[in-house]
Amino acid sequence: MSRGNDAIPTWSGFNYQGKVMLFYIVKLINKINKEQDKRRYSVNLEEVEDFCIIRDSEYVSFHQVKAWLSVTKWSSYSTAMDKLLKHRDESSNPTAKCYLMVAREVDDWDEDSNTYNGSIELYKHDSKIIGVCDVKDLIIQEIKKYLVEKGYNQNQYEIVYSELCLYLDDRIALMHKQGAKKRDYDIPFSEVLNIIEESVKKEFVRKEFYLKEKIYNYIMENMEKALDGICQDVCEESLKDCSGMCAARTAYEKIMEISDYTKFCKVLNPDKIDGWDNSLAMAENFPVKGLQNEIYYLLYQSKSPEKILGDRSSIYLQSKYSNAKNGQIIPTLLDLTSGYRGKSRALQRIFQNIIQNTDIMDILEGNSITVIPGSYNGFLSQAQITSGWKESNPEKINHYYREIELISSKELQEKFEENGGNHD
């Protein structure tokens, strides 16, 4: 009944998928405690479905989690729901519950045409879908309920919340290292309860949590603001009201599935090699306008949502305009403005920083990356960019990084406009 793929790298205690699972588990723990249920519970992560609840070695529920914002019709989830029912039917308990957990309301879920709503429940909390920016507060609500029930100070909720996120992050990192064949997919509720109980005893929260959570919240807010800006500027309606499918929205959904936002930020800024341990520096490298103009708008103009790909660290655009080995373009915020204004040394310094940025070289190599070609006295041409990149360090580039191509975002947009998008 295995899914046959390795999706663990896309999980994290700090993304939507991980947080929704934490919410469901803590809520269920509160229910178990109230009913004084002494049976053994565990959560199975990614072996069968996104997650499953197991009680005394028997499946209780199967869960599919989707952070899609472009989907408002039940039919868009049909493939996922077919697999959900198939895995349930093949399990030790074919009467187990099936849940579809989504970040946006499905408008036609209750219509007669939906053949799934009799077998699958669209998960809601207090009659509401759990949005991307809502899930943290819902976890905290359940944590407070637990603390009050146990006679603890509910003001300790932040410590408990942080430790649960870090625990899940560490647990998934371990699962990733184990490899699919040797991996233990089950997490007993007893481990989660132990984390909660141990967290209550702590007087401070680890610095690691504050950094990751601050980054996560800032990224989520800026990514959503930037996409909303595109919706309002181009479609003349808000993100909330826009139901259309475009490459920009697809890119947003792929970003929601990223588990390593620190590395994603480094990919967006491949010439920056210092200051990544400073949360303020991290925040500065996620500008709303830059994300809107250089990432979302570029991808929107590509008019090819099906060619937007993603992994745990970045997003990619498959395109014939890439001459790199993988035929993919990585949108970035790399700005060559300072190198254009008669400062060839500045341009060389930017290129040298890319070469020295070993943290992300495995992502960049074999791909094209977009660059902002300038904005003061004109723009660097694609030929000038290519020449400067090759001449910055021929030996290293030819030996190590010759498969990286730099593409002017301005000229790429012009090609999209001429060709009606990113078409073959």
Structure commentary:
With 424 residues, the chain is α/β, with parallel strands linked by helices. The radius of gyration is 23 Å and the shape is globular. The mean pLDDT is 86.
Low-confidence parts lasting 5 or more residues at pLDDT below 50?
A: none
Question: What is the string of helix and strand elements?
Answer: HEEEHEEHHEHHHHHHEEEHHHEHHEH
Radius of gyration: 23 Å
The helix/strand class is: alpha/beta
Major β-sheet profile: 6 strands, mixed
Chain-wise SSE layout:
Blueprint: H1 16-35, E1 41-45, E2 51-55, E3 58-66, H2 78-89, E4 97-102, E5 121-122, H3 135-149, H4 157-178, E6 186-188, H5 189-200, H6 207-235, H7 247-256, H8 261-268, H9 279-284, H10 288-302, E7 308-310, E8 315-318, E9 328-335, H11 337-340, H12 344-356, H13 361-364, E10 368-372, H14 382-392, H15 394-401, E11 405-408, H16 409-419
Parallel strand pairs: 3-4, 4-5, 9-10, 10-11
Antiparallel strand pairs: 1-2, 1-6, 2-3, 7-8, 8-9
Helix pairs in contact: 1-3, 3-4, 4-5, 4-6, 6-7, 6-10, 7-10, 10-16
